[in-house]
Design a protein that fits this description.
about 400 residues, alpha/beta, 5-stranded mixed beta sheet, 14 helices, 12 strands, globular, binds pyridoxal-5'-phosphate, 7-stranded mixed beta sheet
Length: about 400
């Protein structure tokens, strides 16, 4: 709630002011010269132009850093970006150069995969995909020229989880930067940096902001690397305005409360679905039946808000989704309202049937991104839809 905030606010207000100014003038030429010198030497917290930094954005970054690293001796910092994609792409552009080899887990967010496989390859980066959560596959994929490894844990839509300490060890061994997209886990459930991962990225659009009303992303990592990344962000221009930064801070005030409910709703729904006679398989890392339940339990305090389950065919899945009264049809996650969709129809639509089959995306698969509704109301909604279908 209070983390990352000064006890006594500069504005004396309990809330962070929304500083809208783009320019932050200097009192004298001497102050301007001193600022420029300090920024080149060590970086400066003083704002000069809003694409470089802004006080409201900086306040949000301090809160995000606190969530990833409070109570540890990690010397880290955070950059708030204009979207989750801007965070992932900005970081990859920062760590990679032509001729480098990038290893990605194969169930990565589709747009990240497209960025790497379609765009980065045009600039001479070689990309290998490895089976998510399979330590042997990772061991075999890395090479002496591997520069970075990016995984998503838990992954979409099956909640496959990565052994983060194993990943960090492999990264150190081949001198590759390790990056975890922890959007599905959030720092409430998992803190990858504590397990030796170099960078953690988030779509702040999701749980961290939490209300389906803004786009933002974040990168947290070593203090000096983040200082370097700030330069890349200034060049790319992928910054958020101060109103958005303020809304991120406001969302973070209730982050812990919301995450507890997201976790509880998903666990209860997964357990209910697992016992329902119409439901085939259920994928939720909080279930003992999940293939990576033990890995998830090692690295996560809770198992997140996303549950996937199989109803065997498109007709039944569509009938259930269309009968839901509370849950809405849509493809995002991490906000107050529960959202459902069939991945084959939305997130994985551009893949061929064979490609979808290879990664287990069937036409009866439903992904539920649990919101924070009352748990009994949510279960009743799914029960009535399943019973009637
Ligand atoms: N990473 C993950 C795991 C996501 O699910 C998403 C979006 O759904 C992103 C990154 C991209 O985030 P944004 O939509 O904020 O750009």
């Amino acid at each position: 709630m209070h983390g990352g905030e000064p006890r006594r606010r500069s504005s004396l207000s309990v809330t962070e002011p929304i500083v809208t100014g783009v320019m932050f003038p200097f009192a004298s030429t001497a102050e301007m010269a001193e600022f420029v010198e300090e920024r080149h030497r060590a970086g400066s917290e003083r704002p000069d132009y809003a694409r470089n930094t802004n006080p409201t954005r900086r306040a949000a970054e301090c809160k995000l850093t606190n969530l990833e690293a409070a109570g540890t001796d990690l010397d880290v910092d955070t950059i708030l970006t204009s979207s989750g994609m801007a965070a992932v792409n900005g970081l990859l552009l920062y760590v990679l150069k032509a001729g480098d080899h990038l290893v990605l887990s194969d169930s990565l967010y589709r747009v990240t995969c497209q960025f790497a496989c379609e765009l980065l390859t045009r600039f001479g980066v070689e990309v290998s995909l490895v089976e998510t959560g399979c330590p042997d596959a990772l061991e075999h994929a890395v090479r002496s020229d591997t520069t970075a490894i990016l995984v998503e844990s838990p992954s979409n839509p099956f909640n496959y989880c990565t052994d983060l300490e194993h990943l960090a060890r492999i990264g150190r061994r081949c001198d590759a930067v390790t990056i975890v997209d922890s959007t599905f886990a959030t720092p409430y459930n998992c803190k990858p940096l504590v397990h030796g991962i170099n960078f953690v990225v988030h779509s702040v659009t999701k749980y961290l902001a939490g209300h389906n009303d803004l786009m933002a992303g974040s990168i947290t990592g070593d203090l000096w690397e983040i200082a370097g990344l700030r330069g890349v962000q200034t060049q790319l221009g992928c910054v958020v305005d101060s109103h958005t930064a303020y809304s991120v801070i406001r969302g973070l005030k209730t982050f812990g409360l919301r995450m507890a409910r997201h976790n509880a709703n998903a666990q209860a729904l997964a357990e209910m679905l697992e016992c329902h006679p119409k439901v085939g398989r259920v994928w939720y890392a909080g279930l003992e039946s999940h293939p990576q339940h033990l890995t998830a339990a090692r690295f996560m305090e809770g198992f997140g808000g996303v549950v996937s389950f199989d109803l065997g065919n498109h007709e039944t899945a569509a009938a259930v989704n269309d009968r839901l009264q509370l849950a809405m049809l849509g493809g995002s996650l991490g906000a107050t309202e529960t959202l459902v969709h069939q991945p084959w129809l939305l997130s994985h639509f551009d893949q061929t049937a064979a490609e979808r089959k290879a990664i287990g995306i069937g036409k009866g698969l439903i992904r539920v991104a649990c919101g924070i509704e009352d748990t009994d109301d949510l279960l009743a909604d799914f029960r009535q839809a399943l019973d009637a279908a």
